[in-house]
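User: For my dataset I need records formatted as: sequence, then structure tokens, nothing else. Please produce one.
Assistant:
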Amino acid sequence: MKSRWGYFFGILAISGSMSLASGQSPLPDPVPVLAPAASNAVAPSTKDITGTATVIPATPIVAGGCLDTCLPRCNGGWSVGGGVYVMQPFFGSNPAFFTQRTVGGATVTHQQDFSSEISVAPLAYLGYTWANGWGIRGRWFEFTSSGSAGSPINSSTTVFDATSVLGALPAPAGTTATAIASSRMILSVYDLEATYARTFDQWSFLFSAGVRYAHLSQDYSISVTDAGANLGSVASSQTFNGLGPTLALEAHRQLGSSDFALYGSARGSLLFGTLDQDSSASPVIRGGSSSSTDVLPIGELEMGGEWGHTCERFRFSAQLGVVGQIWWGGGNASQGAYLNTINIGGLPPSSAGNFGFIGGVFRAGVSF
């Protein structure tokens, strides 16, 4: 009897388990866990409706929301770089000396100007930009240039220095004398400014505003020598130190999806400062000095091409362009607006004029 009940309950248990199983959905197969694709994996390709093969770019997301590891970081970063200006100075008036000769009973006055030469000016910049586009930047460049002028003279030629401090230099007795003049300019410029960067599609803009400090010194000298002997000489110098506001705008246009772009920039500055002048002469002991306030407006334009490439945390860049600057009222080496007291052959005394630069620029830097 017990064996029959055992056999009955066994059949009941098997039937119940089969009915429960038939009322449930089967369990899904386990999903395999795929390893992340390597960053250098080849992107899959598909075809559009025309049958042309197109590439679906692989753009893995990394921390911070930036695409890939070869794109700029999403948070702020530093930028540092340097380069050179290769510029030639131009002056509205840059006299070295004046000569007077009597030709056919008439007095002929000639102005001899300084020659100007191309010079290399180093430049550097350092800045930091936050993730919201605001930043701070420091810029510096220094330009040094020299000029010279000379002319053989004789006893029938009168030489006047361009500063009019001494007036007529001593006349030589023979025909082997020479008048030699030289000039030198040193210009140091420092900018400290706040910046703001914005990007629109393939355009990017950088606005900046801050303060500029400039130190400008110009030296002048002339001497008349005869057979190695110094018959007379004049030396003068002027120094300007100014501080004021500066504003600038830079625009960049990327060329397609390449690493190349076009850029342009414009800057305006207004410097308020002090102009100091000193002069001396021999063998007649004569000289003078003056100090006054002055205002120098400055305008700058620049345009050219640039290259930039980003890899991991670093972006490397280089620029090659043309640049032009104008310094209104910057004067010249023989400027003597406060020292001159005489006119030379009807010519007005040397006074404050404009000067400017034209040339090229090369920069290279890195952001990280």
